[in-house]
Fold this sequence. Notes:
Elements: E1 2-8, H1 15-18, H2 21-28, E2 32-38, E3 51-53, E4 61-63, H3 65-75, E5 78-81, E6 84-87, E7 92-103, H4 106-112, E8 117-121, H5 130-136, E9 139-142, H6 152-163, H7 177-180, E10 185-187, E11 196-200, E12 203-206, H8 209-212, H9 216-226, E13 228-230
Parallel strand pairs: 1-2, 1-8, 7-8, 7-9
Antiparallel strand pairs: 3-4, 5-6, 10-13, 11-12
Amino acid sequence: xxxxxxxxxxxxxxxxxxxxxxxxxxxxxxxxxxxxxxxxxxxxxxxxxxxxxxxxxxxxxxxxxxxxxxxxxxxxxxxxxxxxxxxxxxxxxxxxxxxxxxxxxxxxxxxxxxxxxxxxxxxxxxxxxxxxxxxxxxxxxxxxxxxxxxxxxxxxxxxxxxxxxxxxxxxxxxxxxxxxxxxxxxxxxxxxxxxxxxxxxxxxxxxxxxxxxxxxxxxxxxxxxxxxxxxx
Length: 232
């Protein structure tokens, strides 16, 4: 079982995500565990303030390091070193989301699926104090070359991508064989019935003839031509 620990200031964003589809079933079958932590609970002032103004001037507010450090101290075991914390459990990783981070891909998902605990830090506003990335996080990840309002959506993407690699989460393992082995696999266009769809009179949208031919060699060639290789 992998435990996902999520640090956020908007816990309710995850309500629907946790209560639907395969993620809900995976939780019920105890294949994964997901815990949501409100970062404001790790503050000490009466206003539960998690952010402050940027040193040197600039727009917006930045998450402070103190509440994040306190949360990590509750959720993980580590030693404090001059160059950062050292986790005592090698199968635990702390991930921070940032547009500047390394692009998350299938290879990284496969690596993360071998862990026991993943802590996901969801920033907001203008970002997070750089010392979190420098001294606390093991990985800084991005889900694409664009900026979001926060790290909650990236956290859901990582959870879903990693969870579907865990045996039993997706019913038909044959569909995930290459993914489970961490190998490259092909994603290609797929069609189903009807072979001819007419959105209006005189217009027909067709399934490619080769897919209806029954010629498996030609079908495989077509899939290689129009598909895309994904993975390592």
